[in-house]
Structure formats: C-alpha cells, structure tokens
Design a protein that fits this description.
Elements: H1 5-24, H2 31-36, H3 43-54, H4 58-69, H5 76-98, H6 104-112, H7 114-147, H8 151-200, H9 203-208, H10 224-238, H11 242-249, H12 254-267, H13 269-285, H14 296-304, H15 307-344, H16 352-373, H17 378-402, H18 410-431
Length: 433
C-alpha cells in the first residue's frame, strides 16, 4: 500500500476520530457505565447514540448501491428508520424508560417470563449479528477503495478499529461517535449530492440519463409485496433492536428519552434521499460500475473531490460504518451478558471485564463469518436482520406496552414463540435468490 498524500490524510483523520471516541471511554468504571452510560444521557446524546447505530453502511454505501441497481426503492431503509424513531418517541419511549432495565428482552421477561427473555434475546442477538456482517462488508469496500487493501487486510483493519470503539468506548463512546458522524455525514452527503446535481444539470438531467424503460423511479421496483415487507421489517426491526432501545434505557429521564427518539426521526430520512441522488447520477453517467456497485459511493468521492478531500470523506464514511458496527456489537454483547450469562447465574450486576470479553467474542466470531462467507449485497443482509429482530421482539413489545391484560394467556405466548420461526421460513429463501 503506497503512502500517498491522500492515504496519509485518511489515516491521520481517522486516527483523530478514533482518539475522540476513545476519550469518552475513560469514564467507564463498571458494567453499568459500559452498557447504559450511568443512565445520564440527555435528549441530544440519546439521538446521537441512535443515529450513530442506525446511520451506517446501509444508509450510505448500501443506499447508493441499491439506488444504482434499482432506483428510489433504496429509500426504504432510511425512511423506515425515521418512521420507527417517530413511533419510538411517540408510543414506546415512556414505557421502556420507566422500567429501569438494560435490555429489551429483560423488559419482555417482566411480562412473558424468563424463558421468553432467553428466547427473544437469542433471536434479537442473531438479527443484530447479521447486521454486523453488513457493516463489515461496507467498511471493507471503503478500505479497499480508499487504501487499495486486499480483502483479508481490510477485514483485519475493520475488526481492529471496531474492537477499539466497542471494547474501550462502550455506550459513552457510541454517543461521541454518533455526534461526529452526524456532522461529518451531513456535510459529506450534502456536498456529494450537490456535485452530482451540478454535473448532471439537476434532477431532470439525472432522470434523463437513466436507461430507457428503467424502473429506477418506481419505489416498488423490487415488487410491491417485497417493498412493503421490507418497510414493515424496518419499522419492526428498529423498534426491536437492543442498541437503539439501549439509548432509551440510558436517558436520564422519560422526557429526554422521548425527545431523543423524535430528533432522530427528523434527521435520518434525508440521508437516504441524498444517497439516492448520488446513486442515480452514477447509474446514468457510469454504467460500467454494474457488478461492483457496492463501491459506488467511494468511487464517487474519487471522481468528485480533490484527493485530500476525497480521503477526508472516505475517512468520515469509514467512521460512519464502523460506528454502526461497534454499536451493534455492543447491543449483541449486552444481550448475551445480561439476558443469558447473568440470569443463568441469578446475578443482577456483572463485571466490566465480563461484558468486554463478551463483546470481543462477538467481534471476532462475526469477522470469521465474513472471512468465510465472502461478499453479498449489503441491503440483503440488513433487511433479513431487521425482520428477524422484529419477529422476536416487536409483537411482544406492543402487547407489553398496549395490551398488558392478555400478556399472560397461553395463546399469546405460543404465537410469540412461533413468530421468529415463521419469519425465517418465509424470509431466508427469498434472501438467497
């Protein structure tokens, strides 16, 4: 790997971002600090954690990739994320924060029993685990494009950097990463979309350059039923994901939790629209990217910006992706440690060392799966992930919040146990196509 000026800028910028995130981790003294930041986050910090976890490789690289391949249907992910945060703030935040729990499965365990806590935690963790793979794929695309790394080297680098974020940063570090991501990502995506519009002569120019008889302007281009299923999976998945709800559990009050979710709802969907503009521009102007569309956004940085600015954008984009990956790993490790390890020992509190070892195990095992599994479409992994999380948690969450009187009935519990299995039977075959 040649140490060019752009490479040096990339490494320097990302080193500064990493140092800022790790600095927050110095306040961690216990597993409670690691997992819920001492329940001291204000609304803005809650929003930074949520955005830091949701806005990642799927919202940026994955959205540009899908916009290039199929068009505005790529908005489903960020649109669904924003709608989910709106519902979280309006309907769920109050009930969740009042329970003083650490995991969403622990919340469900209060209403459906400890066995269901184990069960839902397992499927929820598996869903987040799949999403971690999507972040690996996205981060590797950036490292291969920006630094010319081989696939194994890119994987090793991504693993090391995510490990630094999650093991030493915890929930406090996730908030700092989210803050940096918010400002950098909006600056990068607004600038990139503006350049795409300028080069094409505006929206009309982008549309006219698309292939004839293209379905790129049809939000149902992937099929009406699949699009609606993906949107439903997004809404249910976000409202069921440990790391997003962990931000709610970490708020210092119900009001701060609710406002943090509502703020997230306002700022997430526009990121997807900016990515769609870039993806559609590239589809018309660079048809040769077909087959390697996962690298479309890093490619755009190279052709649109001077080398030093492109390197800065790539470093910021890598932070976006790795921040999401580390947040998901934090969520998985919290689930496993609180819902399985501590409960099996009948313990209420655990050790900081224990939860960090759990996070390291999740990190390394997911990297191993990526190494063995090769490449795949980023959004494919993510929709499967969201649907699996939703099937394990969402119905139970709605019943616990709105229909508590029926929570103890045998029929309700039987249905809740069946939902994840039914989803897997329906979703896995279509994902593999």
């Amino acid at each position: 790997m040649e140490l060019s000026v752009s490479t040096c800028i990339f490494i320097l910028c990302f080193g500064l971002f990493t140092a800022g995130a790790l600095r927050a981790g110095r306040t961690i003294k216990s597993s409670r600090d690691f997992s819920v930041a001492g329940r001291a986050l204000n609304s803005t910090q809650v929003s930074w954690v949520i955005m830091g976890a949701i806005i990642g490789g799927v919202s940026t690289i994955g959205t540009v990739q899908t916009a290039y391949d199929v068009g505005i249907a790529a908005w489903i992910f960020t649109l669904g994320s924003g709608l989910s945060c709106l519902l979280l703030g309006l309907l769920f935040a109050t009930a969740l924060r009042r329970e003083e729990v650490t995991t969403v499965s622990e919340f469900l365990g209060h209403y459906f029993g400890r066995n269901f806590q184990y069960y839902s935690s397992t499927f929820n963790s598996l869903g987040m685990y799949i999403h971690v793979i999507a972040q690996y794929l996205a981060s590797m695309a950036i490292l291969q494009s920006a630094l010319g790394m081989s696939q194994p080297c890119a994987l090793a680098t991504a693993t090391l950097l995510m490990g630094l974020f999650v093991i030493f940063g915890g929930m406090a570090g996730a908030g700092v990463v989210g803050k940096i991501k918010f400002y950098m990502l909006y600056a990068i995506m607004i600038s990139a979309a503006a350049i795409a519009l300028s080069r094409s002569g505006g929206i009309s120019g982008i549309i006219s350059a698309l292939p004839a008889e293209s379905e790129h302007l049809n939000i149902f281009a992937m099929g009406t039923s699949r699009t609606l299923l993906d949107l439903a999976a997004m809404v249910a998945g976000v409202l069921s994901t440990q790391i997003y709800l962990q931000a709610i559990f970490s708020a210092k009050s119900v009001r701060e939790a609710r406002n943090g979710a509502l703020l997230s709802a306002a700022v997430i969907p526009p990121i997807g629209l900016l990515g769609i503009i870039i993806g559609l521009y590239l589809k018309g102007a660079y048809p040769e990217l077909a087959g390697s569309s996962a690298e479309a956004l890093p490619f755009f940085f190279k052709i649109a910006f001077p080398e030093p600015i492109a390197a800065l954008c790539a470093a910021g984009l890598l932070l976006v992706v790795l921040g999401t990956g580390s947040g998901l790993i934090l969520g998985v490790s919290t689930n496993i440690y609180v819902d399985v390890i501590l409960k099996s020992r009948n313990q209420v509190t655990g050790s900081l060392r224990g939860v960090r070892i759990c996070a390291l195990t999740v990190l390394l095992s997911s990297a191993g799966i990526v190494l063995l599994g090769g490449k795949s479409a980023i959004l494919q992994w993510s929709y499967l992930s969201m649907g699996l999380r939703g099937s394990a948690v969402f119905a139970g969450l709605c019943i616990a919040v709105f229909l508590r009187k029926i929570a103890g009935t045998l029929l309700v519990r039987a249905v809740l146990y069946l939902l994840p299995v039914i989803y897997l039977l329906l979703a896995v075959p279509s994902t593999g196509q």
